[in-house]
Write a structure and sequence with these properties.
With 152 residues, the chain is mostly helical. It has seven helices and no strands.
Length: 152
């Protein structure tokens, strides 16, 4: 998943941009964004849904003779966001899953962390520091082989 902060701010900025004012999102709006994020709704689908909802609202305002209300909350876009998610899912049939692609390289894979610790153990040993009560290179090697911090 992308950066937690960016997910929220991108949605907030798009909503404010499409509404045409700096309306502060309500607590319920933030809870809705959190629900989408936890459900794994892609940011692109949320932004597309917001755009669709406002496009429909603008079209209705142009053809209608009655006064059109302003959109006052993100919940007004929820249905369009869900439609955008369904469209994205249909379009991605046969494509590798986003979760699999993101899980492929997080930077904290066991082999990668092990190599990092092993490299640091070699660096510590080659530094020829004075012996101490706690042997750092041994600690790095033990952690890289077991995946756990040494006790003691």
């Amino acid at each position: 998943m992308q950066n937690y902060f960016n997910y929220f701010t991108e949605i907030e900025e798009r909503f404010q941009q499409r509404r045409g004012s700096l309306l502060m999102l309500s607590t319920l709006d933030w809870a809705l964004i959190e629900t989408w994020r936890e459900a794994g709704v892609p940011l692109e689908a949320v932004l597309h849904g917001i755009d669709d909802a406002f496009d429909k609202h603008d079209a209705k305002a142009l053809r209608g003779t009655t006064r059109t209300r302003k959109v006052n909350g993100l919940a007004w876009c929820a249905q369009s966001v869900m439609e955008a998610v369904e469209q994205a899912m249909e379009a991605s049939v046969g494509a590798p899953s986003i979760a699999a692609a993101q899980a492929a390289e997080t930077g904290f894979e066991a082999e990668r962390v092990g190599r990092y610790l092993e490299d640091n153990a070699v660096s510590i040993e080659s530094a020829k520091l004075s012996p101490r009560r706690f042997n750092s290179s041994r600690s790095c090697r033990q952690t890289s082989s077991t995946g756990r911090r040494p006790s003691g």
